[in-house]
TrEMBL record:
Forms part of the ribosomal stalk, playing a central role in the interaction of the ribosome with GTP-bound translation factors. Part of the ribosomal stalk of the 50S ribosomal subunit. The N-terminus interacts with L11 and the large rRNA to form the base of the stalk. The C-terminus forms an elongated spine to which L12 dimers bind in a sequential fashion forming a multimeric L10(L12)X complex. Gene3D superfamilies: 3.30.70.1730, 6.10.250.290. One of its GO terms (cellular component) is large ribosomal subunit. This is Large ribosomal subunit protein uL10.
Length: 176
């Protein structure tokens, strides 16, 4: 069924808006994946804050024009599913990587971050990025370390005084 001009414009505008607010993009070939598996993937994408869409390559090329994902144009060959990470830069990469492990027909083609196109072999670089909560936890522990050391140092002074007094007491007992 042919898509009308107005529908095409709406699709391009929607994908352009998603690309404008996205942190990273992952492209994959979905040939051979069942409809049930695709439904599961779409559900997981919604839960993880990932914009997932199958769009014709010509429309995708128009939609990413003027965004930092313009670099993906050369990877748009054959059937392509497009995933944009909206909240967490590694969310789409983790989602599609895990999905590809379960579905042998699903193949990751490329990914893009910060206007740079990366090959499918670089998926681990993006997938292993910590989530926002993990990054905040790491930041909090780094910020807490100097305070913890300072408290230990302050606590050590009275402990040393107590040990010295106890040692003097023990010496006096032995001498008496």
């Amino acid at each position: 069924m042919a898509i009308g001009l107005e529908d095409k414009k709406a699709i391009v505008a929607e994908v352009n808006e998603a690309a404008g607010g996205a942190l990273s993009a992952v492209l994959a070939d979905y040939r051979g994946v069942t409809a049930n598996d695709m439904t599961t993937l779409r559900k997981q994408a919604r839960e993880n804050g990932v914009y997932l869409r199958v769009v014709r390559n010509t429309l995708t090329k128009l939609a990413v024009g003027g965004t930092e994902f313009e670099c993906i144009k050369e990877a748009l060959v054959g059937p392509t599913i497009l995933a944009f990470s909206m909240e967490d830069p590694g969310a789409a990469a983790r989602l599609l990587k895990d999905f590809a492990k379960e579905n042998k027909d699903f193949e990751i083609k490329a990914l893009a971050v910060g206007g740079e196109l990366l090959g499918a072999e670089q998926i681990d670089r993006l997938a292993k990025l910590p989530t926002r909560d993990q990054a905040l936890g790491m930041l909090a522990s780094v910020m807490q370390a100097p305070i913890t050391k300072l408290v230990r140092t302050f606590n050590e002074v009275p402990s040393k005084v107590t040990r010295v007094v106890a040692a003097v007491r023990d010496q006096k007992k032995e001498a008496a």
